[in-house]
Amino acid sequence: MARKLDRSRGFAEVHGPGVGYAYEQDGLCFDHAGVEIGGEALEVAEAVAQETLVTEEASVNAPAKPKAKPGPKPKAAPARSAPAARGPVFES
């Protein structure tokens, strides 16, 4: 049965490129859920993390896309005239 991370004791959060686990305690590695991973599972997790790192580096080092050309300027709205009178106008 896999051990679980004891959060009441000291443990380390592990960050960085190519790291396949989230926590470390007493020399053991734990996933994000706090379940111990080791042996083949740890090797697979680290391989996936390394592959992700390589993919991210490739996308960062890819040539920049050319900027889009600016489109045409919007046309000015037509000038408005004074509002029309409402209803008949009676003179006295």
Would you summarize the structure shown here?
The protein is α+β, with helices and mostly antiparallel strands.
Q: What does this protein look like?
A:
This protein is α+β, with helices and mostly antiparallel strands and 92 residues long. A hairpin with a 5-residue loop joins strand 3 and strand 4 (36-37). The chain has one helix at 40-61; strands spanning 12-13, 23-25, 28-30, 36-37. The protein has a domain at 12-60. The mean pLDDT is 75. The termini are far apart. The protein is elongated and about 100 Å long. The protein has a four-stranded antiparallel sheet.
Salient structural properties:
4-stranded antiparallel β-sheet; 1 helix; alpha+beta; 24% helix; 92 residues; single chain
Model regions low in confidence, pLDDT < 50 over at least 5 residues: none
Helical segment count: 1
Computed Rg: 33 Å
User: Largest sheet, order of strands side by side?
Assistant: 1-2-3-4
Shape: elongated
Q: Got a strand count?
A: 4
- Fraction in beta strands: 5-15%
User: Based on helices, strands and strand pairing, what is the structural class?
Assistant: alpha+beta
Query: Can you give the helix content as a percent range?
Result: 10-25%
Q: What's the N-to-C terminus distance?
A: 102 Å
Main sheet specs:
4 strands, antiparallel
The overall pLDDT average reads: 75
H and E string: EEEEH
Task: Compile the SSE list and pairings.
Elements: E1 12-13, E2 23-25, E3 28-30, E4 36-37, H1 40-61
Antiparallel strand pairs: 1-2, 2-3, 3-4
